[in-house]
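Exam revision sheet. Question 4 asks you to relate a sequence to its structure. Input first:
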Amino acid sequence: MTLVWLAVALAALVIELASVSFILLFAAVAALVAAALVQLGAPLPVQIVVFAALSLLLPVLLRQRLLERISGRGVLSRTDSLIGMDARVIQALDPVLGTGRVIAGGVDWAARSSVAVPAGATVRVAGADGITLLVEPLAALPPESAS
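Answer key, structure tokens:
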């Protein structure tokens, strides 16, 4: 019976290599566990139940993590390296109009802030919306510049 489970594992691996869906990979692991159960003297119904349970549970529990780990983060945006960097406001940031410009990393960028920030102030890049930087002032702004 061990050879049967090993054959099932091998077949699942061969099909997995052709499809790369990361579903049959878990069936192969389940078949190997069932083969180990044969060696431990487990009866056939126990082997089948364990195989079926693992074949169903392993993909649900592990497939997404495996895909994330293999695929990585993807292509980095031009703005990703700027997050956390300080920038200098060269055109006042207006939260109502959503306008303003900053120099970050030596490059002129469109920027938005949730508060008004005057030209010349220093801000920190908190994120990005496409190629527009989302910035926050570093220090509390005086009341006249906050309007």
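Marking note for examiners. The chain has two domains: 2-71, 80-145.
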